[in-house]
Design goal:
With 361 residues, the protein is an alpha+beta fold. It folds into 3 domains: 23-120, Beta-Lactamase; 126-196, Signal transduction histidine kinase, dimerisation/phosphotransfer (DHp) domain (Helix Hairpins, Orthogonal Bundle), CATH 1.10.287; 202-361, Histidine kinase-like ATPase, C-terminal domain (Heat Shock Protein 90). 43% of the residues lie in helices and 21% in strands. It is built from 12 helices and 12 strands. The strands form 3 sheets. Strands 2-1-5-4-3 form a 5-stranded antiparallel beta sheet, sandwiched between helices. Strands 7-9-10-12-11 form a 5-stranded mixed beta sheet. Strand 3 and strand 4 (94-103) form a beta hairpin. Helix 6 runs antiparallel to helix 7, helix 7 runs parallel beside helix 12 and helix 10 runs antiparallel to helix 12 (327-337). It is elongated and about 95 Å long. The N and C termini lie far apart (81 Å). 24% of the residues are buried. It binds adenosine-5'-triphosphate and magnesium ion. Magnesium ion binds at residues 254, 257-258, 323, 327.
């Protein structure tokens, strides 16, 4: 006897409240739209973002931006998934979402249901913007020394061909520009190396007193060149922190070099170390090292952006001194890698102070 085909298993109806329970497990805002275009269910993330009492409201009234309305209408008319960009100004910031309108399949299609979900793409767009700015800035930074070089090459080939005095002068400028380009590439590589290891905290025991003394010795020619006296004050005994000695030397090198460049000629640079037994947000004792100059100081409007790549208060002046505008960005990343902090205080006419806080445990 042939075996009769087994009847299709009927799908039992969902117990009341189960749909809401499932939706609440989805972290992204999700709403379910019924056949008549009204919201049938919404999860907590959706209510937090779009407001309470969503149920029963027309979807086109909740998502009323033109691009969103078009996406919903298109999806429902053609039965195809559509997407739209949605800008939702919240109380504290502008959020950008990618909205996906998905007409349901199977039993959901028979009931005319559509699922609308929102994905927060604000941070992706922000990262994209940072990347675009970085590439634009870097191209500009590389192009300016190249423009100088090509200009002088033209002059040396043409009008200054037989002018020995001009040739020597131009070659010196060209050498300086080529060196600056080399420094720029070096700084960029250094920055990307630190960033690549950002999550790996360095653990070698490093004596910061020795690091500061080594840095000041290396910078002696620059200090003497500007007639600047450097003083280092520290409590007795080693100031040991877990760290990467070369990178920490780089931190103090960049800070003291800035104090020399932007401090007043004939002035002084003071480096002071102390131990903070407790500090807000830090688990244990912290070594604080302050680098202070008596230069012209920095206008407070610049302080929040000072550690950004390529940010300079006076770019003409910084470039003229061979700067790349990456020094403080490198400092910030190295300090972050050491789970430390950087504090900047400055007032115009009163000098500047940069303090590095490094945890001892
Ligand atoms: N001690 C300081 N006093 C006044 N301004 C400062 C001081 N340190 C930094 N600045 C300002 O911050 C800007 C950024 O500093 P940063 O060290 O990142 O770049 P830079 O010194 O211009 O170039 P680089 O360090 O790559 O040679 C400087 O151009 C300068 O305008
Ligand atoms: Mg610098």
């Amino acid at each position: 006897m042939p075996i009769p085909p087994s009847p299709a298993t009927p799908v039992p109806p969902l117990p009341a409240g189960l749909l809401e329970a499932i939706l609440s497990g989805v972290p992204e805002p999700v709403v379910l739209v019924g056949a008549e275009g009204r919201i049938a269910a919404a999860n907590r993330a959706a209510t937090e973002l779009l407001g309470p009492r969503l149920q029963g409201q027309p979807a086109l009234a909740v998502f009323r931006q033109p691009e969103a309305v078009a996406a919903i209408e298109r999806a429902r008319a053609a039965g195809e998934e559509t997407q739209a960009r949605l800008n939702l100004p919240t109380r504290s910031f502008d959020a950008t979402y990618r909205m996906t309108v998905h007409p349901c399949d199977g039993a959901g299609a028979a009931a005319g249901l559509t699922v609308i979900s929102l994905a927060d793409i604000g941070h992706i767009e922000e990262a994209e913007q940072i990347r675009r700015d970085f590439v634009a800035n870097m191209s500009h930074e590389l192009r300016s020394p190249l423009t100088v070089l090509t200009g002088f090459i033209e002059t040396l080939k043409g009008p200054a061909r037989n002018d020995a005095e001009a040739r020597a002068r131009f070659l010196a400028i060209m050498e300086g520009e080529a060196q600056r380009m080399n420094r720029l590439i070096g700084d960029l590589l250094q920055l990307s190396r630190v960033e690549a290891n950002q999550r790996v905290r360095p653990r070698d025991p490093v004596d910061l007193a020795e690091v500061v003394r080594t840095t000041l010795t290396a910078l002696r020619p620059q200090l003497e060149g500007r007639g600047i006296a450097a003083a280092f004050t520290a409590p007795d005994g080693p100031l040991t922190v877990p760290g990467d000695r070369d990178q920490l030397i780089q931190v103090f090198h960049n800070l003291v070099e800035n104090a020399i460049k932007y401090g007043s000629a004939g002035g002084s640079v003071r480096v002071t170390a102390r131990i903070e037994p407790q500090m807000v947000g830090m688990a244990g004792p912290v070594v604080a090292i302050e680098v202070a100059d008596r230069g012209e100081g920095i206008d407070p409007v610049h302080l929040p952006r000072l550690t950004e790549r390529f940010y300079r208060v006076d770019s003409h002046r910084s470039r003229a001194m061979g700067g790349t505008g990456l020094g403080l960005a490198i400092v910030k990343h190295i300090v972050q890698r050491h789970r430390g902090r950087l504090a900047i205080r400055s007032a115009r006419g009163e000098g500047s102070s940069f303090t590095v806080f490094l945890p001892q445990v």
